[in-house]
Design brief:
Belongs to the 5-formyltetrahydrofolate cyclo-ligase family. ATP binds at residues 4-8, 135-143. This is 5-formyltetrahydrofolate cyclo-ligase. The strands form three sheets. This protein has a seven-stranded mixed beta sheet with strand order 3-2-1-6-9-11-12. Strands 8-7-10 form a three-stranded mixed beta sheet. The protein has one domain: Rossmann fold (3-Layer(aba) Sandwich). It is built from four helices and twelve strands. With 192 residues, it is an alpha/beta fold. The mean pLDDT is 92. 24% of the residues lie in helices and 24% in strands. The protein is globular and about 45 Å long.
């Protein structure tokens, strides 16, 4: 079986070759599926990642969530602690700045040291996922640490292109599975 690092490299390389036209088409379908979730009827606080490179494009979804009155939280990297912080965002044009690893992050003045204890939904990025809901991220372990500390009661949702869900890969004790994976063709509920 390939190592996590080999799988990460393989799937990031594969993803980099997908044309933007497909990315936008698939992302639109994934975002629509997310917005159709029954869980949104009772959710108030949603944390999401900000897409980069050829990840599922979250920008239109984030705009919609803000417009519809959800409290939207976006992550920033706490490099020393090896985890993430969150800040509430009200305007994607005004509230973001370039951060660690070239990712857009909430501006410093919006950052609060305390992560809300009542996040309803956390949208989690990843390079590749398995059918049990585990993910291979980008190698820093930031999300696993964050989810272990703050994700117990939240619905953990991953966005992935269908061909980036594989049967199996090595899972470690600290890995945290998501509850649901949304692809351009399906919503997969994980039975944990």
């Amino acid at each position: 079986m390939a190592t996590k690092n080999e799988l990460r490299q393989h799937y990031l390389e594969k993803r980099s070759k997908i044309p933007f036209e497909k990315i936008n088409k698939w992302s639109k379908k994934i975002n629509e599926r997310f917005l159709s979730l029954k869980d949104l009827e009772t959710a108030q606080k949603i944390m999401s990642y900000i897409s980069m490179r050829k990840e599922v494009n979250t920008y239109p979804l984030l705009e919609t969530l803000i417009e519809n009155g959800f409290k939207l939280y976006l992550p920033y990297t706490l490099k020393k602690e090896g985890t993430l912080g969150t800040a509430q965002i009200n305007n994607l044009d005004l509230d973001l700045q370039a951060g660690v690893f070239g990712v857009q992050e909430p501006k410093r003045e919006l950052r609060n040291k305390k992560v809300p204890g009542d996040l309803d939904i956390i949208i989690v990025p990843g390079a590749v996922f398995n059918k049990a809901g585990y993910r291979i991220g980008y190698g820093g372990g930031y999300y696993d640490k964050f989810l272990a500390e703050h994700g117990q009661s939240a619905l953990k949702v991953a966005f992935a292109y269908e061909e980036f869900i594989i049967d199996d890969f090595p899972v470690e004790d600290h890995d945290i599975a998501v509850d649901m994976i949304i692809t351009q063709t399906d919503i997969i509920t994980i039975e944990n």
